[in-house]
Structure formats: structure tokens, C-alpha cells
Specification:
- The protein has 233 residues and is α/β, with parallel strands linked by helices.
- The chain is built from 8 helices and 6 strands, in the order ααββααβαβαββαα.
- A 6-stranded mixed beta sheet has the order 1-3-2-4-6-5, sandwiched between helices.
- Helix 4 crosses helix 8 and helix 5 crosses helix 6.
- The longest helix is centred in the middle third of the chain and has 18 residues.
- It starts with a helix and ends in a 10-residue tail after the last helix.
- The C terminus is likely disordered.
């Protein structure tokens, strides 16, 4: 068993934020009408992907009726549809969508995680909740030591900075600020900033397919990853 396996097994058992455990369970019990036949995961959601990944993607948190329902990051919602379609175009995923944990999705050269492992009310985590979750991200960074970490949004950017500092890396002063296209090296990884793949960004055109494709191309270049060689026929 690898260190990442150990992390992935430990995350769903986490009880560091009791209020989030209650909230996720309540969402799972109430369900949306469209998902009334689902048994919600309703637990903390572990990262997943290629355990030899050279690109780490850090999101915000599981969506209440997305990953909190399916049990896999960016699975079962429009944000995931946008992200996985881009990963497929980049040659970093074997399919362009993800609906459930057993749908056959495979990532190549990429590992996906988040700043927070539980769906927070209003999709807005508190500083305390993010601090409680930080050790998981720190452990993932140390296990993978990815050459590139794509941070989807400002919260993911700040979470990655905090996790890298906890891993013993020195942060520049002033701390690098998030922006789409921002880039900075912190120790063993280069942080790349990208707007989050949320509907409020993708539906309004703040984040376009071309912008996300460019971010993935830049990440692949920095990491030395050839996407087209990573997808099975």
C-alpha cells in the first residue's frame, strides 16, 4: 500500500469538523428530486488519480450534490463535466465525463484533490475548517512532490501555499497572490493559478474552454508531460 493509498483510506473516516459531517449527512438524507434514488456518499471525499502524477489539481471542496453524492472529486456535476472534458482534450483522461465512481474514468499524469474534503454550506469553507483539512493536502503534496500544482480559485491557491509551508517550504514575501495565469515556484512545485470550473465562471465566460486548455498545456509543459501518450486507445 502506498502513502497515497493510506491518505485516501483515512479521509472518509475524518471527524475533524463535526459540523460538516452533520451538514453532509443532512444533504444526503434530504436529496434532490433528480437524485432521489441515490444513496449519497455523505462523507469526506478523498483525492484520486494517477499515483505517479506530475500534475496536481487542487479544487475548492466537494459539491453538495456532486462529489458529496458520488464520493469522487468533481464527479456528477457540471463543474466536473467542464474539467474532465478539458482533461480529455489534453490527453490526460480517457473519457470526457464522470458520473459515478465506477464509470471507468482514468487519469494519466494527473491527481485531483481539494482544499476541503467535505461539502460546506453555501460552498464557503471557514478558515478553521480549511486548517483542519490542511494536513491531507500537505501529505498529498509530499507523497507526490508534483512538479506542477494547478490551483482552481483563490481558496485553493491559499490552501496550497499553507500546505507547502506546513511541508517545510519557505514562502516568498509578500505571499504570491492568486490570479488566473499566476505562476510561482514554491520548493518542489510550481503553482499555477486558474479560475475555478464552477458554473458562475464557466456559464458567464469568465473561464472559457480555451483558457482552461491553455492552463493545462502550460502545466504539461512545465511538468514534462505529453498528454497524448498518456491515454489508452
Amino acid at each position: 500500500m502506498t502513502h497515497l493509498d493510506t491518505i485516501e483510506r483515512s479521509v472518509p473516516r475524518c471527524r475533524r469538523c463535526p459540523e460538516l459531517r452533520v451538514y453532509c449527512a443532512e444533504v444526503g438524507a434530504a436529496r434532490r428530486r433528480a437524485y432521489r434514488d441515490w444513496t449519497y456518499w455523505a462523507k469526506p471525499v478523498a483525492g484520486f488519480g494517477d499515483q505517479k502524477a506530475r500534475i496536481l489539481i487542487v479544487g475548492l471542496a466537494p459539491a453538495a450534490h456532486g462529489a458529496n453524492r458520488t464520493g469522487r472529486m468533481f464527479t456528477g456535476d457540471s463543474s466536473g463535466d467542464f474539467l474532465y472534458a478539458a482533461l480529455r482534450r489534453a490527453g490526460l483522461a480517457n473519457q470526457a465525463s464522470s458520473t459515478h465512481r465506477s464509470d471507468g474514468l482514468q487519469l494519466r499524469g494527473v491527481y485531483i484533490t481539494a482544499a476541503l474534503r467535505c461539502a460546506p454550506p453555501g460552498n464557503t469553507p471557514t478558515p478553521g475548517q480549511l486548517a483542519n483539512c490542511r494536513p491531507y493536502l500537505t501529505d498529498e503534496l509530499l507523497a507526490l512532490r508534483p512538479p506542477v500544482s494547478i490551483c482552481l480559485g483563490a481558496i485553493a491557491w491559499r490552501a496550497a501555499l499553507g500546505a507547502l509551508q506546513a511541508a517545510g517550504e519557505d514562502l516568498p514575501r509578500p505571499k504570491p497572490r492568486f490570479a488566473h495565469g499566476a505562476e510561482c515556484r514554491i520548493g518542489f512545485t510550481v503553482l499555477l493559478g486558474c479560475y475555478h470550473v464552477s458554473q458562475q465562471n464557466t456559464f458567464t465566460g469568465r473561464l472559457t474552454e480555451a483558457m482552461l486548455d491553455a492552463a493545462l498545456r502550460r502545466a504539461a509543459k512545465v511538468a514534462g508531460v505529453r498528454g497524448s501518450s498518456l491515454v489508452r486507445p
